[in-house]
């Protein structure tokens, strides 16, 4: 008797993911974070795949962090073959622990790029033009001198992008009409690729010193954790703005607060924080020169739908025996294939998913 794939998920960004997967030969199990731990562990311990909950999902639940794909969960859930994050970020997954256990790790870095890049551009325009500052002033009482709300323009300014992936690359395209000079810090980006996008690769120190807008769009990894701290903020222009749609732990919040209060930088726009959602008494939320959103840069109707489709399609590929497009730990592939064969009786290959999809009328197993 053939084994049915079992996939545990906490939520879909759009119901279309469930609709796609329910049409295939996959058992879907919803992880209820409010349920007793025993019930949730029983579900995960029987699962072959896990669509990992986000930090925001688990933040409001006691002991919620245990449902992230860390070493303890990996060790306990011995049947897991693959784990996937909902979007581009994969800091909710311990990639090394998964690789050691023969578990494939995937993300979905493409579908939300437009939404996040537009959000980042919106932050730039808002900070430069003082839109939110002016709105607050207008609502709070007598306006006073309008010239105190004088902003600046993006035209001809210098944009520094830290991490030129799908999001950073799209942001550069969106900024093209403003004739900005584009500087990029990305150790994994070739100079020729940067030039093709109208950008120039520079050391981080030069980017910080010269940029009018510093945009962080890199993933959170061991290399980027704490990348922007006190010395980095001190290197920025006093007229510059710091913007992040990445992950909170890439920058030092205390150092950012000091830079904003002291006038070391002009302002900041933050979609991510060390603690999410941030506490109401987080001092950054009480500064006039700070814009903040609750990790919603990638949440649009269109992005949620496209991300859900991409998520479902990737799980179809995985359980259909194909190599997922967003495999983050390719070194795991040989051992993963052995483990997959032990469960399902056939070895994955790059073409297997397409063949099985054709057999099943368009849906992979």
UniProtKB/TrEMBL annotation:
One of its GO terms (biological process) is amino acid biosynthetic process. One of its GO terms (molecular function) is NAD binding. Gene3D superfamilies: NAD(P)-binding Rossmann-like Domain. Pfam families: 2-Hacid_dh, 2-Hacid_dh_C. Keywords: Amino-acid biosynthesis, NAD, Oxidoreductase. PROSITE patterns: D_2_HYDROXYACID_DH_1. Residues 73-329 form the D-isomer specific 2-hydroxyacid dehydrogenase catalytic domain. Residues 121-297 form the D-isomer specific 2-hydroxyacid dehydrogenase NAD-binding domain. InterPro entries: D-2-hydroxyacid_DH, D-isomer_2_OHA_DH_cat_dom, D-isomer_DH_CS1, D-isomer_DH_NAD-bd, NAD(P)-bd_dom_sf. The keyword Amino-acid biosynthesis applies. Belongs to the D-isomer specific 2-hydroxyacid dehydrogenase family. PANTHER family: D-ISOMER SPECIFIC 2-HYDROXYACID DEHYDROGENASE FAMILY PROTEIN (AFU_ORTHOLOGUE AFUA_6G10090). This is 3-phosphoglycerate dehydrogenase.
């Amino acid at each position: 008797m053939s084994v049915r794939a079992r996939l545990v998920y906490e939520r879909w960004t759009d119901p279309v993911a469930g609709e796609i997967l329910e049409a295939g030969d996959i058992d879907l199990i919803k992880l209820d974070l409010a349920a007793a731990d025993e019930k949730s562990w029983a579900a995960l311990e029987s699962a072959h795949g896990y669509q990992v909950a986000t930090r925001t999902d688990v933040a409001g639940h006691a002991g919620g962090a245990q449902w992230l794909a860390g070493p303890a969960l990996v060790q306990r859930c011995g049947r897991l073959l693959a784990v996937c994050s909902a979007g581009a970020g994969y800091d909710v997954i311990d990639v090394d622990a998964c690789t050691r256990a023969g578990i494939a790790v995937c993300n979905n870095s493409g579908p939300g790029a437009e939404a996040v890049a537009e959000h980042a551009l919106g932050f730039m325009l808002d900070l430069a033009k003082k839109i939110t500052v002016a709105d607050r002033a207008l609502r709070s009482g007598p306006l006073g001198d309008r010239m105190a709300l004088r902003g600046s323009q993006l035209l001809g300014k210098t944009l520094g992008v830290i991490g030129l992936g799908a999001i950073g690359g799209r942001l550069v395209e969106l900024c093209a009409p403003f004739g900005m000079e584009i500087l990029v810090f990305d150790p994994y980006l070739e100079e020729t690729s940067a030039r093709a996008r109208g950008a120039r690769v520079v050391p981080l120190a030069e980017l910080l010193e010269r940029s009018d807008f510093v945009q962080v769009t890199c993933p959170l990894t061991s290399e980027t954790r704490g990348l922007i701290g006190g010395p980095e903020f001190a290197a920025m222009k006093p007229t510059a703005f710091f913007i992040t749609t990445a992950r909170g732990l890439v920058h030092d919040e205390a150092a950012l607060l000091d830079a904003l209060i002291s006038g070391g930088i002009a302002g900041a726009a933050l979609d991510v924080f060390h603690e999410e959602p941030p506490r109401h008494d987080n001092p950054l939320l009480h500064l006039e020169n700070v814009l903040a959103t609750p990790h919603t840069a990638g949440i649009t109707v269109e992005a949620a739908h496209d991300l859900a489709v991409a998520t479902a399609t990737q799980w179809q590929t995985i359980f259909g025996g194909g190599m997922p497009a967003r495999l983050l730990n390719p070194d795991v592939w040989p051992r993963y294939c052995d483990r997959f064969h032990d469960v399902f009786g056939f070895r994955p290959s790059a073409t297997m998913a397409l063949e099985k999809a054709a057999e099943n009328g368009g849906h992979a197993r």
